[in-house]
Amino acid sequence: MDVAVWAVSMGLALGLGLLLLLISGVICTVYSDSVLPPAIQGPGKLRLIYAVQVTIAVLGNIVHSLGLGSGSQLAVIRYLRGKMLGTMNKKAVGLDIKDEVFDGVPVRVYQPLPRAAGRRRGVMFFHGGGWVFGSINDYDHLCQYIARESGSVVVSVEYRLAPEHRYPTQLDDCLTATLHFIRTAAEYGVDNTRMVVSGDSAGGNLTAAVCLRVSGLEEESPKLPPLRAQVMIYPALQMVDFTLPSYRQNQCVPLLFKTRMIFFYLQYLNGEVSLGEEVEAGQHVPLALRTAYRKWINADLIPDQFKSGAHGSSPTLTADDEAVDLLKRSLEPTFSPLLASDAAISKLPPAYILTCEFDVLRDDGLLFKKRLEDNGIPVSWHHVPDGFHGIVSFFDNGYLTFPSGKLAVDNVVAFLKDI
Fold first, then answer.
1. Half-sphere exposure of residue 235, counting CA atoms within 13 Å on the CB side?
2. Which active-site residues does the annotation give?
3. What is the pLDDT of residues 303-360, one digit of tens each?
4. How far apart are CA 124 and CA 289, in angstroms?
5. Which of 177, 298, 303, 405 would be 395's cystine partner, CB 3.0–4.6 Å?
């Protein structure tokens, strides 16, 4: 046999073997690491999406290890996610879409056509992705839909990501873009007294944090109009207690595992991911503060209907001095909005909160709902009983569309129309 032919044959055989090994490894991981509750919507489609996520992570590790990609391992995975999981941007209908820069922050502005005779509402949108992934391109179709169906001018913010940029960079970018939009609203045909901030997951965290910052600025700047509303879609609101019922029930439910949520928090904060076990055990919170926070973050505050099967150990009654010191900024209200004072909460705008039954972050939303209501803030709540974390991103994705995701997005649109 010719040496060249033999070499090619061996190369193809090796490549095929590695491909089969990758496929078998992905299948094993998908079925051994994840748990899909019987009542969850579209389990087959959800497993497929999770399999793609696992494949991306493995390929990212391989490409980075071989030195075939530029930048960090996360940068390689971001690129692959954009190619393999990104929503195909659909042709804009009835919208004028422009990429702009608001005080140094890249944004994409969606303006409904034709131009309205009066002033429209304005909607800031902060994308999800654990402060590590996500982009305005990933959320382009969702923002188009919200702008067109609600008749709002939507501004999607391309805030900087971890690990290249840590807290509070992401918050600062979102706040800067929001204040710029408020100041220049008239240029976009927007009434700056009808301004809404919104976001999903990590973007829901940034939504709450921006509202806290803006409400604090209103006293210093009397001419700054208050925000009309905040829209939080399965928001991440605290890094204090990972033993809440939703974390126990859904710790291995795709698309967001408990350990992955802890990883995202730590990447956002300062990159101390080696402290994940201490955080999961609650050892990063001083005992005195843990006791104080129980009035706001406590399984007893969760309605009984959400506690079924939520068994497990309570947070460790010890604190790790190193973790306490390195992670102390995680207790700042703009990092964990559930820790904001009653005085600060009482100044927040009316809220819309969306939660999903099979989501580790469900109870964060429920607890924030209670805190707002206890302080006299009106809350519109939409719960998706068969939903999982990230379902809104699959509201119109061909075969990977989830009907409950579409219903959830339409519910958000209906809320906005009433503003």
1. 32
2. 201, 359, 389
3. 999 998 766 666 667 999 999 999 999 999 999 999 999 999 999 999 999 999 999 9
4. 34
5. 405
